[in-house]
Amino acid sequence: MGAEVIVSPDGLLWALEKIVQRDPHVNPALLFERAVNGAGRINLQKYVIALGAAIVEYEPPMTDDELLQLADLRQIVKESIGNAEHTYTRTRRYENALVLLYPRLRSRLESNKGTEEVVGQVRIAKMRKQETNAAQQIVQNRDSQEGRMERMELILRLEDVRLFHEWVPKTQRPHDLMSTIKHVQQNLKRRDAAYDDFWTKVLMSAWVARETNVDLADWIQSENPKNARQVAEIIKILETASMLKEKALEE
Fold this sequence. Notes:
single chain, 251 residues, mainly alpha, 2 domains, two-stranded antiparallel ribbon, 11 helices, 2 strands, rod-shaped, disordered N terminus
C-alpha cells in the first residue's frame, strides 16, 4: 500500500470528506478560513483551491453569513494569486488521487488555475508591466522637463521680440497687403522653416494687428506659438514682408 496522503484530522482528506459528506457539524466557511490562514498542525494553504472547488461542487449547507464569509475568503485567495504571490500557489501532488476519490472535482482540478505555472506567468507579466511603466515614467519625466524648457525658451523669445523688434510704420513700404503677399511668395523659399506654416494667414493677421496698433509681441503671443522656433518662423515671415524692424537700442 502507498503512503497515506494526510493522517492529521486537520488534513486535506479529512477536510474534503467533511465537505463532500455535507457534515452538518462542520462549518465549511470556518474550515476554509483555517486553510486560508494556515491554521492547524497541517498547513493547507496550498490546497485552498481544491477545498474551494469541493465546496462549490458539493454545496455543503451554509448560512447567508457563512456564504459571505466564504466569498470574502475566496477573494483574498484570488487577489493573492492575481498578485503573483506564492501563499496559495496550488500544489498538484495529490490531485490525481483526489480525482479518483472525488470524480466530480475532475473538471475543476484539470484546469491550471492557481498553479505555479500560471502564477509564474502572472509574475512575469507584472514584471514586464512594471518595466514598461518605469520606462513610460522616464519618458514622461523627460517630456515634462523638455516641455518646461520649451515654455521658458518661448517666454524668453517673446521677451526678445518685445525688446528688440517693432512694426515697420504702416505708411512705409509695402503699401498694401496684396503686394506684400506677392513679395513674400517670391522671396520666402521652400527650404525656409516658415514656409511650412500658413504664412498667408499669419501675414494677413499681422497686417490687421499692425493697422489696429496691436503690440507686436502681444500679437505674436495671440498666434499661440508652441515654442521659440515657431516665434522665429513668424519673425522670418514678417521680416520677408518688410513689416518689422529691429529697434535702435539706446546707449
